[in-house]
Amino acid sequence: MTFAGPGARLVGTGSALPERVVTNAELAAKIDTSDEWIIERTGIRQRHIAGDEETTSSLATKAARTALDDAGLEASDIGLIVLATATPDNTFPATATKVQDALGCNGCVAFDVAAVCSGFLYALATADSLLRTGMAKRALVIGAETFSRILDWDDRTTCVLFGDGAGAVVLEAPDTSAATPQDSSASGILASKLHADGAQHDLLYVDGGPSTTQTVGHLRMRGREVFRHAVVNLSQVLHEVIEEAGVSVSDIDWVVPHQANARILDATAKKLGIPAEKVVVTVQDHANTSAASVPLALDTARRDGRIKPGDLIMLEAMGGGFTWGASLMRV
Ligand code: UT7
Known about the structure:
Oligomer: single chain
Strand content: 15-25%
Bound molecules: oxa(dethia)-CoA
Strand order of the largest sheet: 1-9-14-13-12
CATH class of the largest domain: Alpha Beta
Order of helices and strands: EEEHHEHEHEHEHEEEEHEHHHEE
Radius of gyration: 18 Å
CATH superfamily of the largest domain: Thiolase/Chalcone synthase
Distance between the termini: 22 Å
CATH architecture of the largest domain: 3-Layer(aba) Sandwich
Largest sheet: 5 strands, mixed
Helix content: 25-40%
Number of domains: 2
Shape: globular
CATH topology of the largest domain: Peroxisomal Thiolase, Chain A, domain 1
Number of strands: 14
Structural class: alpha+beta
């Protein structure tokens, strides 16, 4: 799927993290792992884990409220909610509808997108395309997860890697009269590319579901193979988006990647030829929060002043399916 030209504009960001922080040392006291191994192989130092009262929808709602405040908007200004998650509150209805009700913008379009760690990129491109059609004026795009609920806490090869959280952005429909499709100085989404390859299903999946086992299941991953595919696929899609938008790598101010592993971030940046200082890294604090990781990192870097108005930022992610995608945006 491809969209080119200035699209929806980013007008606000927000995020939410569970209060409870779990350090590597705390995990090492329970399973056969160590702080040294986790830091050296992944860069992760801690993760946030949802408490009994916290759910994907409660984290998503908090992140959405913060994003609305940042944009100076009310929930009633929103006409579309697209929520990316692989850990919905219930199999159905969509978690987006729970968030909508909690925010109080009942009546607007609200649905979930399931593309696991690439979910936010899929949700962003979907919302952008719907805003371009005039279906709504403003959208909330949310990535929210409680992966702690689908982890096998006895499997050291996966349970140390993930965390819970939510991130949200507010998008505004493009002003089509203001810029030509080639104008990369205009604010908005300049280009997005999405891909999927279902042949790689068994490398990263959950071994349960309503239609198969009637259980929720646990996350299973062949990490080394996923790592290899991630670097290749991400490099490819980043180049596709750069070409589509008609910019060069040196024009990019910040890369905001999916935070799975610091070594993947390093390898992908090197392959793209972008300096490590231009990559937003939050994996040490949040671990891998799946669909929440890109909007969480984006909100972190906007609030600490790294990402400034006018910057050209590249968002990218890869996850189960496989699915992967990237989006270039002038903020
Ligand atoms: O978000 C979706 C995308 N997901 C990803 O991008 C994840 C991609 N994969 C990765 O990030 C890495 O492959 C991992 C972090 C999952 C694993 O790192 P690795 O360098 O590929 O390690 P490995 O799987 O090759 O395992 C190396 C060794 C093994 O021991 P042996 O067989 O060499 O004796 C593992 O059993 O490390 C062992 N090991 C651990 N040791 C201590 C695996 N997990 C742990 C652990 N603590 N938690």
